[in-house]
Give the backbone structure.
Amino acid sequence: MKEIREKVWFIGGAKKGRFPYSHSLYLEDPGGLLIDAGAGPVLRELSGKTEQVVLSHYHRDHVSYNSYFTGAAFSVHREDAPGIETFEGFSRLSGLDQLNLENFWEQDGQIKFLATKADRYLSEGDYLDFAELKVKVLHLPGHTPGHCGFLVEKYNLLFAADIDLTRFGPWYGNPSSNIEQFRRSIRRVRELKPDLLVAGHVYPVAKNIDQKLSAYEAEIDRRDEEIVSVLKEGPHSLEQLAQMNIIYPRHYNQEILLFFEKNMLQKHLESLVKRRMASKTEEGFFEAL
Ligand SMILES: [Zn+2]
Ligand SMILES: [Zn+2]
């Protein structure tokens, strides 16, 4: 735990915040407010001094230590609430209901679903009810429908959750994810010009934030371009494209990663078709235009 601004603590997640963990932010003030609960056992020492837990989105790597905070009030955006409240909601938003994954929850890195009841729903422009530090809720959808960021106005510090500046780039692998929304959310963060950006899976960033966000968004364009260049060589099906590791460098024989790869490719293909850069044949192949 590190105090990065007065009364604002960065809680580094286990495994350097890599999946299935993520970084958290803790605001120390009467009561105590925690943003995201996926950092790992390190969170246990905050369990007695946290009145509110605010969740950026429903993904398991951001909520899996909710159970440490049974006395706290939980908040999440309404569109992501089903993903923490019921297993059915989680399955639907994540798309896991489309997969037949018998031993999925026993797989390395998967965190079993535990329900959390939301006490309050977050909306764009809300201020978190908190004593000294004003924290504004920003609805930044795309990664998930209800994905939110949190701006600590006093320090112009943004917790951007999974607009995360990782080298992997933007992730939109659930059926409920949306590329165009993701792009708009990245641009919105750029316009805010935060002085410090804290994200779910990288260490806090204070330098060249705008440049890094721009490079992060450019990864979406790189994927588009790679798909188009493959299609220029000849028509390809989604299945064929999914074997080419355009999104994930490796799938490690994991069905789930192939599923995410296909979902992300599918969204690119839909967008390319819409922009008349590709078309779909009657046989279900995609070709460049
Ligand atoms: Zn996420
Ligand atoms: Zn995450």
